């Protein structure tokens, strides 16, 4: 029974989407890019700044904040990977120094999880047959560290590209207005609608990570983005006299 359970878990893990680990970078990079850029657009709109200034501020925000966010993503992922590597060496050394004690520690963990003494020993015997699996079990069951393979540079690059790609959406109507003058009176409203749709879409995609209702996640992100835009617009209106 225990062997079947382990096989089932392994099969379920193998069916996971190979690029799922980077979905978070796409979603949160896109959300941050969309919200912060539209906040700039809303603030500039509240202050009645020209379309040229809106674009300058928006593009500057896109690349500076995008780079900052990507750098933070890279450094945090790198630090996490280094920590995991250190703990893995610790687990490997623990097995090398006293394998019997490491086995007893594993059995004790399984006993605390509700396995009988016999099942805990059987499970331990299965796990300790392969050193890599044994180390992974110590990492997860004793250190509460779940092994994962993530390329810090790739994750940071995806975050930056997502930030810039989705963060461009609030600026599209201001760019289009240079070629289609008839949309100038409605460019801010159109930007707000495009941004709202983008926020809802990215928020809805969060259900892949959070497993919550897709429409609730979409509405939540739309609400948060709307609050940020209102705050920025209000500040723009309040400081309009300084422009």
* Number of distinct beta strands: 0
**Shape, per Cα inertia axes:** elongated
The main β sheet shows up as:
none
Individual helix count: 11
Helix content: over 70%
Rounded mean pLDDT is 85
Using only C-alpha atoms, the radius of gyration works out to 25 Å
Q: What is the beta-strand fraction?
A: under 5%
Q: What pattern of helices and strands is seen along the backbone? A: HHHHHHHHHHH
Content-based structural category: mainly alpha
Identify low-pLDDT runs: 1-18
- Number of domain modules: 1
Gap between N and C termini, in Å?
A: 72 Å
Question: Could you name the key traits of this structure?
Answer:
243 residues, mainly alpha, 11 helices, elongated
Please outline the helices and strands.
Blueprint: H1 2-14, H2 23-46, H3 51-97, H4 99-112, H5 117-127, H6 131-142, H7 152-167, H8 172-176, H9 187-205, H10 207-210, H11 214-238
């Amino acid at each position: 029974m225990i062997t079947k359970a382990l096989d089932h878990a392994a099969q379920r893990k193998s069916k996971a989407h190979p690029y799922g680990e980077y979905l978070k970078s796409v979603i949160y990079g896109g959300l941050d890019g969309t919200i912060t850029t539209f906040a700039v657009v809303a603030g500039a709109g509240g202050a009645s700044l020209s379309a040229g200034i809106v674009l300058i501020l928006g593009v500057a925000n896109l690349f500076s904040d995008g780079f900052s966010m990507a750098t933070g993503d890279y450094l945090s992922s790198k630090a996490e990977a280094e920590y995991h590597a250190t703990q893995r060496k610790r687990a490997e050394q623990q097995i090398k120094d006293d394998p019997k004690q490491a086995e007893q520690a594993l059995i004790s963990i399984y006993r605390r999880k509700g396995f009988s003494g016999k099942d805990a020993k059987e499970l331990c015997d299965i796990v300790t047959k392969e050193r890599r699996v044994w180390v992974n079990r110590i990492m997860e069951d004793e250190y509460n560290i779940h092994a994962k393979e993530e390329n810090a540079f790739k994750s940071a690059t995806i975050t930056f590209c997502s930030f810039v790609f989705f963060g461009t959406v609030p600026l599209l109507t201001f760019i289009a207005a240079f070629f289609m003058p008839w949309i100038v009176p409605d460019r801010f409203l159109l930007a707000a609608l495009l941004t709202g749709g983008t926020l809802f879409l990215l928020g809805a995609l969060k259900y892949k990570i959070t497993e919550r209702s897709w429409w609730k996640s979409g509405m939540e992100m739309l609400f948060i983005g709307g609050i940020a835009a209102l705050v920025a617009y209000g500040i723009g209106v309040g400081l309009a006299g300084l422009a």
